[in-house]
Every structure is written in C-alpha cells, then in structure tokens.
Design goal:
This is Universal stress protein. The protein is an alpha/beta fold. It contains seven helices and five strands, in the order βαβαααβαβααβ. A five-stranded parallel beta sheet has the order 3-2-1-4-5, with helices on both faces. β1 (4-8), α1 (13-29) and β2 (32-40) form a beta-alpha-beta unit.
C-alpha cells in the first residue's frame, strides 16, 4: 500500500511528532521513509544575502555551515528514529516555500503518503500564520496524515 513515505521536517517538536507515526507505518508496510528539510528562502531571504539565497536554491550548503547543520540535524533525527527500527531512510534538502517545495517533491518522486506535524491552530491564528500542513493537505492528491504536536491525529 505504501512504499515511500515522506516526512517533511524543520527539526521542531511539531515536525518530530509525526516521525513515530511515519516510522510505524513504514515498518508495517515495509516502506522507505524520506526525510525532507526545506530551507524556507522567504524566511531566510532577509537574514541571508542574495548570493547566499542563490546558493541555497542550488543546494550548495557546504559554505553555509549553520544552514547545513540545521538541515542535517532535522533529517538526522528522522533517520535515527527509523534506523532504531530497521527502516530505510533517505535524507533530502531543498529550498523554496515549504508547502510548495513539499508538493514539488511529491510530484517529482514516487511518494505514496505524506506524514507531517501541525500545531493544531485554528481560527485567526491559522489565518494569520498560515499552515504548511493545511496547504499541503489541500493541494496534494495523495493521502496526508497530519499529526498535531500533542500526538493526536488531526486529519
């Protein structure tokens, strides 16, 4: 049923809440887990200069130790949890708007399921802050399991 499961991660507690669910499903179905870290170029555009943003877009993180370290730590957490259960993991790093980059990864790869965390916000806070999980859920044509930070399934 599921051969390839995508877990988008930014290394936050919210993202980590989804990892156990993804690993459980991967174990059940013999699936590969794909850990995806997206460098949010819109958020980093002000902190980084134009030249560094272009490096991130090209995937050239070797000269950006802080960004590379954060990406490695986030995807490494997924790999560590999965490897404890004997699950194969592929780590990926890309740049862009997170929801758009996740959808592009899904389109370009043979992903069967996306498992991601959410803060479970509602009302005005969700409208003002936006929700990557909601955008992925609404604009992706495959199953998306959303796990809130407290461990409850949202959708």
């Amino acid at each position: 049923m599921y051969d390839d499961i995508l877990v988008p991660t930014d290394g936050s507690e919210t993202a980590e809440a989804a990892v156990d669910q993804a690993v459980d499903l991967a174990e059940k179905y013999g699936a590969t887990v794909h850990a995806l870290y997206v460098v949010d170029v819109d958020a980093t555009n002000l902190a980084l200069g134009t030249e560094q943003v272009e490096r991130v877009r090209r995937g050239d993180l070797d000269e950006m130790p802080e960004v590379k370290s954060k990406a490695d730590e986030a995807t490494g957490y997924v790999a560590d949890v999965a490897s404890e259960r004997g699950i194969a993991v592929e780590e990926h790093v890309t740049a862009g708007s997170p929801a758009r980059a996740i959808r592009k990864f899904v389109e370009d790869n043979d992903v069967d399921l996306v498992v991601m965390g959410s803060h479970g916000r509602s009302g005005l806070s969700r409208v003002v802050l936006g929700s990557v999980a909601e955008k992925v859920l609404r604009r992706t044509r495959l199953p998306v399991l959303v796990v809130d930070v407290h461990g409850d399934h949202v959708e």
